[in-house]
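User: Here's a chain of 293 residues. Predict its fold as tokens.
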Amino acid sequence: MKIEDIYMRDPYILLHEGVYYLTGTTDRHWMGGRSEGLKIYTSTDLENFDGPHTVFQPSDNFWSYECWWAPELHFYNGKFYIFCTFHNKDMKRKGTQILVSETVMGPYRPLSDELATNEEWECLDGTLYVEDGQPYCVYCREWTVIGNGEIYFQQLSPDLTRKIGPSAKMTDAKSASWTVGLNHHDPKRYDDYITDGPCLYRMKNGDLIMLWSSFSTKGYTVGMAKPMNKKINGWWHHLPETLFSGDGGHCMVFRDKEDALRLSLHVNNSQHGYEHPCLYTLDENDRALVLLK
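Assistant: Prediction complete.
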């Protein structure tokens, strides 16, 4: 099938040994109801895709069965890992847990019982970032409880099985000049600010840049932030310009077979049931990433 024919939110692509592996949120009832499992599509040209192939599915001995969001597929230290947001409303537990497999198509199993995100908060959209050989989970703290969504980094052990030390705040949604609030809780209030889908990328000039999603006056939008010291533990500031606006977001970046820098995100965010992955080519200038038309 063609990529625009795949129903998916939060698309993530891994290129491994000449094959593109695409995963993301594939449950159409992604706000509730039993998940149909984590899926992977495969392609050799980013145009024609095979699948879906189920690589992890709900079971009686797993703590979550619904709201499986934003799986990311990573190859790290010789193994394949899925970072996925899981939820259990009865347990009041929401966060990113890491799955592992020796082969890219699974089956995957929980790496440990521990979440990679803060167990005391509602968290989502954890991603793997490695700096100077040290792995981190970068994730969002849900706006649903605190009103103003935040982004944190959490140091992980080298084998990813446990957290090391406390999380550290990187930024929050209201700090960006382009974000607008929503009125999900009260029609008289517009102060719910969302953080979604952080993705970190090291630019050719050495700068570290984070892409993340929220809402602007143009709808679901991808913005950019950078630390002053080019390190994850630096003081993060938001760039005034956005990378993508117009009802699409939760993106990631990767290099294709021709070494071109690509952006993957879902579009039709407001048209539930019609969301699908979309690919763009990116370029770099001396301060940010640029979307090529």
